[in-house]
Amino acid sequence: MGRDVTGAGGFRRSAVIDLGSNSVRLVVFDGISRNPAPIFNEKVVLRLGRGLNATGRLNEEAVPLAMEVMARFNAIARGMEASPFEVLATAAVRDATNGPEFVAGLKSRLPGVPIRILSGEEEADYSATGVLCGIPDANGLVADIGGGSLELIRIENGRKCDACTLPLGVIRLDDRSDGDLARARTLVDEDLARVDWLEAVRGQDLYLVGGAFRALARMQIARTAYPLNIVHLYQLAPDTAREMTDWILSANKRSIERLPNVPRKRLDDAPFAATVLRRLMRHAQPNGLVFCVDGLREGWYMRNVAASVADNDPQQAVAREMCSMLGRSMQLPERLTDWTAPLFPDDDPVAARLRTVACWLSDVGAHDHPEYRAEQTYLRILRLQGVGFTHQARAFLSLTLAVRYGADLSVAYLQPSRQLLDPAQFARAVVLGQALRLAYTVSGGTEALLDGTRLEMAGGTLSLHFAPGRDVVQGESVRRRLERLGSAMDMSVRIRDH
Question: pTM of whole model > 0.85?
Answer without folding.
Answer: yes
